[in-house]
Amino acid sequence: MELILLGPPGAGKGTQSKFLETRYGVAQISTGDMLRAEVKAGTPIGLEAKGIMDAGGLVSDDLIIRMIGERISRPDCAKGFILDGFPRTVPQAEALDRLLHETAVDLDAVIELKVDEAVLVERISGRFTCAKCGAGYHDTFRKPKKEGVCDTCGGTEFTRRPDDKAETVHARLDAYNVQTAPILPYYQAQGRLYSVDGMAEMDEVQAQIEAVLRKIGVTAA
Ligand code: AMP
User: Fold this and answer.
1) Is residue 36 annotated as part of the catalytic site, yes or no?
2) Residue 88 annotated to the active site
């Protein structure tokens, strides 16, 4: 299965793609996670990307396309992948088409998670993550069962993304509206675009995504 999850920051791409990774046995690829790992490791890529990420902008297409080209050629992608946060511009979508064409891989679908902008700001500004296992939480919508303790691994350290601050969230939403939204008609024209209601409960969104996958003949491993 080769799938793209599209949608603005806070739409639930990360949550849904992690679920699909487990259910379908394919690799989840988040360019945001890859960049954050580079920043943490202090690599040249990380140094180049950090300022742009902190300001809520998009890092250069060239850098991202090189990173993705290398990533999807790794063995764990042989059974397929879910792209989360890539492509984010039309040139990135075009470059992905070329990469897939070279490897004779066909993109199954692009699933858009639709969410109202006012809800996004609220969702993003309250989210935090377990520092040990990466499980995601929210101050209002998804608190750990026991305050300060991760439900999944029992970890007690949590982190918040620096770019989840309210001021940066608006810049990120602008980047989505101006640079990423034009990808929707690009994939619509290819007949690959499906939309689901990202405002629904997490389980319901999952069910809607799976309904799309069944419709196009993709079944769980
Ligand atoms: P995300 O975790 O997907 O919200 O990404 C966090 C940040 O990483 C974004 O706000 C961008 O600065 C950068 N980023 C992630 N993916 C891309 C991409 N495909 N193209 C350009 N910048 C990206």
Assistant:
1) no
2) yes
160 is known as an active-site residue: no
**Cβ of residue 176 lying under 6 Å from some atom of ligand 1:** no
Would the pTM count as exceeding 0.90?
yes
pLDDT mean by block of 10 residues, the chain; 221 residues: 96 94 95 96 95 96 96 93 98 97 93 94 91 92 95 96 90 96 97 96 95 92 68
Question: 114, 79, 129: which is closest to 5 by C-alpha?
Answer: 114
Phi, psi for residue 33 in degrees, rounded to 5: -65, -40
- Sequence letter at residue 139: D
53 lines ligand 1 (CB under 6 A): yes
3-state SS track over 2-37: EEEEECCCCCCHHHHHHHHHHHHCCEEEEHHHHHHH
Burial class (CB in 10 A: 0-12, 13-18, 19+), 16: buried
Q: How many CB atoms lie within 10 A of CB 12?
A: 23
Encoded tokens for 3 = 């799938």
Task: Give me the sheet containing 158-159, strands edge to edge.
Answer: 136-138, 127-130, 158-159
Beta-ladder partners of 184: none
